[in-house]
Amino acid sequence: MSNRDLGSIARGIAGHWHGAPGSYRVGAIIMLLHFLLGLFGPLLAPYGYAAMGTSLPMEGFSWRHVLGTDALGRDVLSRVMYGAPTVLTLAFSGTALGFAIGTSLGLLCGYLQNWFDELVQRLCEALISIPFLVLALMAISAVGPELAGKPILIVLVVALVYAPRTARLARSAALEIVTRDFVTAAKLRGDPAWRVAWQELLPNATGPLFVEFSLRAGYAPVLVGALGFLGFGLHPPTPEWGLMISENRSLMFVAPLSVLGPGAFLASLVVGLNLFTEGLARMLGRSDVVVRA
Amino acid sequence: MSPKPVLAVDDFGFAYRQGRAWLEILHRVSFAIAPSEVLGLVGESGCGKSSIAYSLLGYRRANGATQSGTISLDGADLLALDRPALDRLRGRVVAMVPQNPATALNPARRVGAQVREVLTRHGMIRSRPEADRRCAELFSLVGLPEPGTIGRRYPHQLSGGQQQRVCIAMALAGEPKLLVLDEPTTGLDVTTQKQIVYLLRRLVATSDMAMLYVTHDLALLAQIADRVGVMYAGHLVEIGPTNEVLIRPAHPYTRGLLAALPDIRTGAQPMTELKGLLRRQDIPVGCPLYPRCPIAVPSCADNPQPLRPIATAHEVACQEYKGATATQAAMPQRSIPPARPTVTDTSPLVELRNLQLGYGAAVGLHRLLRSTPIQVIRQIDLVLNRGEVFALVGESGSGKSTIARSLAGLLAPLSGTIVFEGKPLPRSISRRTPDLRRRIQYIFQNPDESLNPRQTIFKILAQPLIRFFGRSGGALAPEIEQALRDVNLDPDYARRYPGQLSGGERQRVAIARALIAKPDLLICDEVLSALDVSVQASVLELLRDLQRRRGLALLFISHDLAVVRSLADRVGVLFKGELVTCDATEAVFRPPFHPYTQRLLDAVPDLHAAERRAAG
User: Fold this and answer.
1) How many CB atoms lie within 10 A of CB B458?
2) Which residue in A260, B156, B160, B445 has the fewest CB atoms around it within 10 Å?
């Protein structure tokens, strides 16, 4: 790649940034900070995440322990920094898996509109009708003790909660697209359903799916945190933010920072993602995504 | 012309902002309309004619701005008015009839209530009974049946023609001095179009209301307009009495437009006199037509071309118009198509036997519910021979497209069989072999819909090659380049997306996609109706040429009788799901006509109508 290419890309990004709504820009900056925290947090953390007795337990703010220490004398800030990659990875991979499954099913259903569609739709409705925390807990207890506390289980549970919701959205997007003649042309050509879904439908449904993805990804840390809080998430001493809030909740009045600190990080991630999504939706709604050749 | 015009547009320029640049939409346009006069504005898509129509209502999009000039409407300076003043003006002084009544009317409200709203808004009525009486008057004025009670209906309970009459009634409610009509009959059938044009003519004759009639259809203007203005790329290039402009066109663009129309009376071929396409970025400071003009001289590019009078009330913006009119006395002579080369093998390719078609047939589990399908085609027997062009004509709802869809395998027949080369064709596309699918190709009406906007032209054209011929990798590129050349497109287009092509170019890509499969039968479903007149002519030429060279059989579905006459070998006329005539083209278009064919033919607007009207 030559310098000129890089220059034009930089100008493209600058132009994109310039025209974007404020909420999109603020959200993007918050997300960038979280991303950097996820990448470098563990390297920069002043103490280990399981290092006990770094100071007196339940200490409040001090310059050595900005967020104080918990009941075991562990530095809360270090634990938050160590936890960032875990939270981000779990939330995003769970959402991504749920999206992959939901989008494929939804687009296929929207194209086929036959018994398979009926079956999948009824199944999705049944899953959506169960409150997501209940569904998650049912799934965890159904899997049994072997997987309990493993990150893969959290990812699967997030995916299970999101897949039916995504499937419905993808299906409704597909229902509009299949009425267009290029889909008919693919059908006349004899393209198999998966190919039509992949080549004709998916590229034209990216707008609403993208918005939905970042919206769901914004809720995912809350879901992961809630599972952690209830004790169905990762096992201690993993520094997952929801689990930390749960562990320290009895210290709420003694060392409020040990709860509010991880809470603030979790909240800022969710708010950042939501702002980003809101701005993104406005940008996509303002004009159809321009195809640049 | 009466001394005081209702409307005077003077040196009006208008532009839209695109990013940081301004895109000029209208360039110093000037014209006037006198009371009870009909001015027709004609031009192709993007020429700025609709922008004029909206400007006359004092409406502009948020990203538009006036660049120069004034619009004076009934003595008021329209461009200087504020919002309350505009509100008083709209409906009372100027009113608009929209292009598509189906989207202009609120589907959730009764039509009477929508007309009453105009009356109450302008304080023209005091009481509900008075409003109802006025509505009934308006409805009977526009020729709606049962004017007293039809106001109780919702828009979907009316036909397209009736909906447009309601829109006209709404426009007339405020007794405006100027009626602006933006393609008011484009979505309607020819027979309905004829009735609406009759209505409009009667309205003008019985009042002193003036009209601005915006359309792309020159022949239609011959029926209604007193004067015609021709727009090209935001410039008004010619304006004059309808007769003058249509019979003795002076501007090369007007001549090109007229030449591009197929003539239903003679079956003459349309011709493409203008080179290439309108590209705004190529327009020089001088004449906007310069890059495409057949008679341009170098100085055309530099000298701005103002309108200059050449005859009484006839003005042309062309310095070279004498060169065009002197060489050919009137319009260039057009070739009558030669007898077709005889195709060696004319055995039947497709036979429709006792075919009954309809929608809503029960499938799968729904069969238990026993729904009765709505029958569209009652019974039809039809033979298509190899290498012939068979045209199906009829109004919307006559079942033309339904036949095409069943032939393509998109709609299973209720009963009867389709025979292809002597063997029954499987009813649904999923049961047909790849080879059968390849041999019957389908071209859709609207290329905006039939090409995936997220795929490059290369990818679009590669699909049939991969599917039908198992090509891959390096073998694709040469064939795709050749396919693009076959439809007269630059092979470089392979890298572009459909959004970067014009409408005509997109339809060429759609044709290329069908032809690349090397079909025996090509189904063309209204393939020209989404295209501009001059583009239509070139696509038609291309289709005709390809059909002859490759010996394709063409099922050409159209509502345009003139196009059909210039292209088809045989014609079938459909009326409400039945084939009323089916014969060689010459026989169908020669008296004695079938009564329904006669009705269709009568409804086709005729360029020479104005001439005859003037004479009679």
Assistant:
1) 17
2) B156
Alpha-carbon distance values, A248 to A75, A201, A244, A255, B166 (Å): 12, 48, 6, 9, 71
Nearest-CA residue of chain A relative to B19? A19
Domain assignment present for B490 = yes
**pLDDT tens-digit series, residues A246-271:** 888 888 888 888 888 888 988 898 88
B525 has which bridge partners? B557
Which domain does B146 fall in, by range?
104-175
The pLDDT tens digits of the residues spanning A227-251 come to 887 878 787 778 888 888 888 888 8
Q: Which stretches of chain B sit within 8 Å of chain A by CB?
A: 364-365, 408-410, 429-430, 432, 434, 437, 441-442, 444-446, 449-456, 463-464, 467-468, 495-497, 499-500, 513
Whether residues B35 and B118 fall in one domain: no
- Say which CATH number the domain at B199 has: 3.40.50.300
Its pTM stands at: 0.76
Query: B151 and B47 in one domain?
Result: no
Question: Does the ipTM exceed 0.90?
Answer: no
* Same domain, residue pair B181 and B168: no
Residues B134 and B263 in one domain: no
Q: B510 with B546, same domain?
A: yes
Distance of CA B497 to the CA centre of its chain: 24
Identity of the residue numbered A43: L
List the one residue out of A185, A35, A159 whose CA is nearest residue A101: A159
Judge if B227 and B132 occupy the same domain: no
Provide the pairing of β-strand B76-77 with B64-73. antiparallel
How many folded domains does chain B comprise?
A: 3
Domain boundaries defined on chain A = 19-46+63-286
Q: How many helices (H) and strands (E) does chain A have?
A: 11, 0
Helix B190-205 to helix B160-173 angle, to the nearest 10 degrees?
20
- The tokens describing A172, both together, are 């409704």
In chain A, which among 137-196 make CB contacts under 8 A with chain B? 180-182, 184-191
A19-46+63-286 fold? MetI-like fold (1.10.3720)
The torsion angles phi and psi of A190, rounded to 5 degrees, stand at 90, 20
One DSSP character per residue, A172-210 reads: HHHHHHTTSHHHHHHHHHT--HHHIIIIIIHHHHHHHHH
Distance from the Cα of B391 to chain A's closest Cα (Å) equals 22
